[in-house]
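Open question from group meeting: does this chain pack into something compact, or does most of it stay loose? Before anyone orders reagents, we agreed to write out a predicted structure and look at it together. Recording both the input and the output here so the notebook holds the full record.
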Amino acid sequence: QVHLVESGGGLVQAGGSLRLSCAASGGIFAINVMAWYRQAPGKQRELVAAINSGGTTHYADSVKGRFTISRDVGKRTVYLEMETLSPDDTGVYYCNTPRPPLYAWGQGTEVTVSS
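Structure tokens returned:
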């Protein structure tokens, strides 16, 4: 089935930028709605941004204007460009489809923003 691998996380200073990638492999190739989620320490996983097959995007209010989601359908890869990072953005970032049935969750990529 579909496997998701997130990458690009790391330790950055507040105000910095980071670009995350989510590569999909396996399963039947299909264009689907894709999204980025994050889980901060001690908190529930939350949806950060989403993009549909036509390129329409949606963002959580907390990241609107700072994050940009995009995709390369041919590469089966989804990206998240993060700018003006804050310590509040710290967490493990995951990608998945928000439309059931969800794919198996990947390992995520950890983002730590220091002040």
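Observations to bring back to the group:
The chain has no helices and ten strands.
The CA atoms of residues 6 and 22 lie 4 Å apart.
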